[in-house]
Amino acid sequence: MDLAALRKSYERDALDEQASQADPLRQFELWMKQALDAQLPEPTAMTVATVGVDGRPSTRVVLVKGVDARGLVWYTNYESRKGREIAHCPFAALQFHWVELERVVRIEGRVEKTSEAESDAYFASRPLDSRIGAWASPQSQVIASRTVLVANAARYGAQFMLSPPRPPHWGGFRLVPERWEFWQGRKSRLHDRLRYRQDEAAGEGGAWTRERLAP
Fold first, then answer.
1. Under CATH, which number does the domain 7-127+168-212 receive?
2. Is 7 designated active site?
């Protein structure tokens, strides 16, 4: 395979300061709606990057389950690798890549756990097999075979029947944005990049500064 010879010209859209929203959350909601309206495959999928005790980064793909002025929410096993790394270093970076729209959104900020009530409410909304799966999977741990998962699912299914409670090790994380970047592919690799950042002195809730980055 000659991967170096692969080329694509990005010419679908543009992003400039005048046409973009002053608030990055509004800009994200606009782009998310367009991704949903376009019926893209997995438009809510995002990459989560965290840093371990050894200083090495790691990434994985999760589904965003909530976005509002407080931040972006996803749910997971707190004892997973990402959960342990967030406990060690409560900062993360998120990335959405909508290939068909030639767009990327990057968000950086600190991470906090959602409230018990939020985690309970979302867990209760999940399909039964997903709720059982939260108990059955010792996420990120080494297991002998898939048989372990199947056996665990059968055991917890028999134990909890139709009403599995939320596991104490399972719940939500919320990334509170400190920086956003919106990337729109453009011709000749002269891509549009708009970054929004908050004045650190102003703290959370402060005004956003919007600036263009060179591609």
1. 2.30.110.10
2. no
